[in-house]
Design brief:
Elements lengths: L2 H20 L4 H4 E5 L4 E4 L4 E6 L5 E5 L6 E8 L8 E8 L8 E7 L8 E7 L8 E4 L9 E7 L3 E6 L2 E7 L15 E8 L19 E12 L15 H14 E4 L11 H9 L3
Antiparallel strand pairs: 1-4, 2-3, 3-14, 4-13, 5-10, 5-14, 6-7, 6-13, 7-8, 8-9, 9-15, 10-11, 11-12
The structure holds 2-acetamido-2-deoxy-beta-D-glucopyranose.
Length: 279
């Protein structure tokens, strides 16, 4: 290669990289189907993944890279019709260990025509039990919808169609550990949760409807290594966000660990919130 050609070649590589960073990431490049023996498949040149669950196994993918903070977006279309017992997930987790960190979005299927539940949880230093559940205000099986996680040193924000539904603040000042030193991978999975998922395991999976398939597309990660601005890194909670959070809580929250007296002695971060009346 002549020098000039080499320079042009390098330049176009750089250009291609910045375009990639600005648009959707590519499943082929950024994730691997790691589980399910062929039940997870990548299509459309890497823009679409399907994950399938049958009576023998579920399936899943995970990102090749680990990220310390970032913004993580994906569009998902969930298992239609009778999906009771199925659990479809999009989550971040550090490597397995007794002190791992994790940020969960889990979609619990339901009987035909009944609402899906979005189950969210945050683990820090191996401790979870911070569930909040919401019902969705649309049918998540008809179309793709966008689910996002912003994770920065100050807070974790979970979004549905760009509407913030949950925020978990860094409350280290009052002794609550925060996820801030262990990098995490992105995961998507589908599995059978009939022992647990639908009304606490009362409704079992109807395997006559199997295989069950969920779709993921337009996966996008903005991390510390991405080119360009990083608005997510300092993303705070605006008045508008606060209004949306209140809206989600009033109209769509169906479970909140902060108010479950049967399960937990109230957590410090819950006290704080009530005191400041912020949420
Ligand atoms: C399923 O639908 C019922 C209402 O038909 C609702 O009470 C329940 O929370 C929904 N979600 C799950 C996971 O069972």
């Amino acid at each position: 290669m002549g020098n000039g050609v080499a320079v042009i070649f390098l330049f176009s590589l750089l250009l291609a990289r910045s375009f990639l960073a600005a648009s959707a990431d590519n499943f082929n490049q950024d994730v691997g189907v790691t589980w399910g023996d062929g039940r997870g498949q990548i299509f459309n040149g890497g823009n679409l993944i399907s994950l399938t669950l049958d009576k023998i196994s579920g399936s899943g993918f995970q990102s090749k890279n680990e990220y310390l903070f970032g913004r993580f977006d994906v569009q998902m279309k969930l298992v239609p019709r009778n999906s009771a017992g199925t659990v479809t997930t999009f989550y971040l987790s550090s490597d397995p260990s007794p002190t791992h960190d994790e940020i969960d979005l889990e979609f619990l299927g339901n009987l035909s025509g009944s609402p899906y539940t979005v189950h969210t949880n945050v683990y820090t230093q191996g401790k979870g039990n911070r569930e909040q559940e919401f019902d969705l205000w649309f049918d998540p099986t008809k179309d793709f919808h966008t689910y996002s996680i912003i994770w920065n040193p100050q807070r974790i924000i979970i979004y549905v169609d760009y509407i913030p539904i949950r925020v978990f603040e860094n409350e280290e000042a009052i002794g609550v550990p925060f996820a801030k030193s262990q990098p995490m991978r992105v995961y998507g999975t589908i599995w059978d949760g009939e022992q647990w998922a639908t009304r606490g395991g009362q409704v079992k999976t109807d395997w006559s409807g199997a295989p069950f398939t969920a779709y993921y597309r337009n996966f996008n990660v903005q991390s510390a290594n991405s080119v360009g601005n990083k608005p997510w890194l300092t993303r705070g909670i605006t008045t508008k966000d606060r209004n949306w959070l209140r809206w989600a809580k009033r109209n769509h929250m169906i479970y909140n660990y902060c108010t479950d007296r049967n399960r937990h002695t109230p957590r410090p971060e819950c006290h704080r919130r009530r005191k400041s009346r912020s949420l």
